[in-house]
C-alpha cells in the first residue's frame, strides 16, 4: 500500500514543472533610431535599475539641494508609495508561500464526562481528561503551475510597485526643482519691477517739476503717474504669485506653508544640457515604462493561473501526534498517525466560470499591453517636447535679450528727447512699456529654460551621474 502511494510522486514532480501561461514577449512599440530633436546631443546609456543620483546638484544651488534632501524623509507622497510597495512585496511573499506545505502543531486538553446511556456503554458514566499533542501537514501539489504562476505574477506586481516608487520619487524631486525655479524667476521679476518702479518714480518727479515750471503739461504728469502705479501693481501681482509658489513648495517638501519660507534671492543658475541618448535606451530608463511592462508580465502569468484552474488539483495531507487520558502523554503506546487523504479534485461543471476567468485574464493582458504601448509613446513625445523646447527656448532667449537691450537704448533716447523738449511724455511711456515687457520676457524665457531642463530629466527617467552633456549651448 505504501509503495503504491509514493510511486506516482516522481511523475507528479515532472508534471508540476509545467506552466499554463503563454510565452511572454514584451509588447512591441514603434520607435525611431534617433530622436527627431536630438541633433547635437551626446549618447548616454543608463538603465532603469541604475542609481539616478542627485541630478539636481548639477544646478549648483545649495538651497535647492537642501529642499530636495528634506523632501525624501518628509513627503507624504513618498511615504504612501513606500507603503504601497511594502504591500506588494508582502502579497508576493504570500503568493510564493502558497507553493509550500503548511505545517501546524498544537496541544489541547479537555475534561469530559460521557453518558452511561451512550451506545456500547458498560452501564456507567465516565469522567476523564483528554490530552492531545498533534500536528498536521497539508500540501497542494502544484500539478499545472497555478501556484507558481500566481507567485511569478506577485513578484512582477512587486517589481511594478518598486518602479512606481521610483516614479514618485522622480516626480517629487522634479516638482520641487520646477517650483523652485519658478519661484526664483518671480524673485528676478520682482527685483526688475522694483528697480523699474524707482526709475518711474524719478521720471514722475522730473515730470512734476517740469509741470510746476510750466514746461510740461498736466497730461505728461498723469502719464508718468499711470506708469508708476502700473509698475507697482505688477509688483503686487508678482508677490502674490511668489507666495503661491512658496506654499506649493512647502507642501512638496512636506512642511506646513505657514511655517515655511524661502528667502528672496536671484542666484545665477544656468540651464543644464542633458544627454538624451537613443530611443531604445528610454525603454530601460523610465520607471513608469518598467512598471507598465511588469504589469503586462503579471497579467500574462495570470492567464496561466486561470488556465490551470480547469485541471484537477492534488492535495496531500498527513497528521499525527500523541493522545492520552492519563499517565505519560508522549509514549509509543499513545501515538497516532494518519497518511492522507491524497485528494484529487477535478472540476466537472461550473457553468462556464473558469472559461470566463480565462477570457477575463486575456482581456486584462490586452489592456495592460495597450497601457504599456501608450506609456512608451507618451514617453517618446515628452522627450521630443523637451528637446524641442531646449533648442527653441535657447534661441528665443538670445533674440529676446537683444530686443531688451535695444528697448533700453530706446528708453534712454526717449528720455533725452523729452528733457530737451523734442517730444512729449507719450514717447517716453511707449518706450518704457516696451522695455519693461522685453526684460520681463527675458526673465520668463530663462525660467522656462530651467524648467525645461527639469522636465527633460523627468522625461528621460532621471540621469545618473556622469551622463550630463555640455556640447549643446
Automatic annotation (TrEMBL):
<dbReference type="Pfam" id="PF02321">
    <property type="entry name" value="OEP"/>
</dbReference>
<dbReference type="InterPro" id="IPR010131">
    <property type="entry name" value="MdtP/NodT-like"/>
</dbReference>
<dbReference type="GO" id="GO:0015562">
    <property type="term" value="F:efflux transmembrane transporter activity"/>
</dbReference>
<keyword id="KW-1134">Transmembrane beta strand</keyword>
<dbReference type="InterPro" id="IPR003423">
    <property type="entry name" value="OMP_efflux"/>
</dbReference>
<keyword id="KW-0812">Transmembrane</keyword>
<keyword id="KW-0449">Lipoprotein</keyword>
<protein>
    <submittedName>
        <fullName>Efflux transporter outer membrane subunit</fullName>
    </submittedName>
</protein>
<dbReference type="GO" id="GO:0005886">
    <property type="term" value="C:plasma membrane"/>
</dbReference>
<feature type="signal peptide">
    <location>
        <begin position="1"/>
        <end position="23"/>
    </location>
</feature>
<keyword id="KW-0564">Palmitate</keyword>
<comment type="similarity">
    <text>Belongs to the outer membrane factor (OMF) (TC 1.B.17) family.</text>
</comment>
<keyword id="KW-0472">Membrane</keyword>
<keyword id="KW-0732">Signal</keyword>
Amino acid at each position: 500500500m505504501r509503495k503504491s502511494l509514493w510511486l506516482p510522486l516522481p511523475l507528479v514532480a515532472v508534471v508540476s514543472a509545467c506552466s499554463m501561461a503563454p510565452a511572454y514577449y514584451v509588447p512591441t512599440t514603434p520607435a525611431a533610431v534617433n530622436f527627431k530633436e536630438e541633433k547635437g546631443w551626446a549618447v548616454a546609456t543608463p538603465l532603469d535599475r541604475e542609481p539616478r543620483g542627485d541630478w539636481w546638484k548639477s544646478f549648483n544651488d545649495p538651497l535647492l539641494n537642501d529642499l530636495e534632501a528634506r523632501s525624501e524623509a518628509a513627503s507624504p507622497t513618498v511615504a504612501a508609495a513606500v507603503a504601497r510597495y511594502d504591500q506588494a512585496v508582502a502579497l508576493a511573499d504570500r503568493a510564493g508561500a502558497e507553493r509550500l506545505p503548511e505545517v501546524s502543531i498544537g496541544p489541547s486538553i479537555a475534561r469530559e464526562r460521557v453518558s452511561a446511556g451512550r451506545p456500547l456503554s458498560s452501564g456507567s458514566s465516565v469522567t476523564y481528561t483528554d490530552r492531545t499533542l498533534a500536528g498536521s501537514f497539508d500540501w497542494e501539489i502544484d500539478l499545472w503551475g497555478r501556484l507558481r504562476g500566481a507567485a511569478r505574477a506577485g513578484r512582477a506586481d512587486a517589481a511594478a510597485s518598486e518602479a512606481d516608487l521610483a516614479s514618485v520619487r522622480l516626480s517629487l524631486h522634479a516638482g520641487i526643482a520646477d517650483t523652485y525655479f519658478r519661484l526664483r524667476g518671480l524673485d528676478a521679476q520682482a527685483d526688475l519691477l522694483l528697480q523699474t518702479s524707482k526709475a518711474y518714480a524719478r521720471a514722475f518727479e522730473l515730470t512734476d517739476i517740469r509741470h510746476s515750471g510750466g514746461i510740461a503739461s498736466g497730461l505728461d504728469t498723469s502719464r508718468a503717474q499711470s506708469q508708476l502705479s502700473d509698475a507697482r501693481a505688477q509688483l503686487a501681482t508678482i508677490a502674490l504669485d511668489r507666495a503661491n509658489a512658496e506654499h506649493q513648495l512647502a507642501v512638496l517638501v512636506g512642511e506646513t506653508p505657514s511655517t515655511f519660507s524661502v528667502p528672496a534671492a536671484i542666484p545665477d543658475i544656468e540651464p543644464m544640457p542633458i544627454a538624451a541618448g537613443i530611443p531604445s535606451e528610454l525603454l530601460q530608463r523610465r520607471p513608469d515604462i518598467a512598471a507598465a511592462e511588469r504589469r503586462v508580465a503579471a497579467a500574462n502569468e495570470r492567464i496561466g493561473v486561470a488556465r490551470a484552474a480547469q485541471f484537477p488539483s492534488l492535495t496531500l495531507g498527513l497528521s499525527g501526534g500523541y493522545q492520552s487520558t492519563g499517565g505519560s502523554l508522549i509514549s509509543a503506546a499513545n501515538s497516532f498517525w494518519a497518511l492522507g487523504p491524497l485528494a484529487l479534485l477535478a472540476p466537472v461543471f461550473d457553468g462556464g466560470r473558469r472559461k470566463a476567468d480565462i477570457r477575463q485574464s486575456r482581456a486584462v493582458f490586452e489592456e495592460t499591453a495597450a497601457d504599456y504601448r501608450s506609456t512608451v509613446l507618451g514617453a517618446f513625445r515628452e522627450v521630443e517636447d523637451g528637446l524641442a523646447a531646449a533648442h527653441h527656448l535657447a534661441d528665443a532667449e538670445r533674440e529676446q535679450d537683444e530686443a531688451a537691450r535695444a528697448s533700453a537704448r530706446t528708453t534712454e533716447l526717449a528720455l533725452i528727447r523729452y528733457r530737451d523738449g523734442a517730444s512729449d511724455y507719450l514717447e517716453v511711456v511707449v518706450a518704457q512699456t516696451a522695455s519693461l515687457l522685453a526684460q520681463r520676457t527675458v526673465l520668463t524665457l530663462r525660467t522656462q529654460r530651467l524648467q525645461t531642463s527639469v522636465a527633460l530629466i523627468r522625461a528621460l527617467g532621471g540621469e545618473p551621474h556622469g551622463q550630463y552633456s555640455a556640447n549643446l549651448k
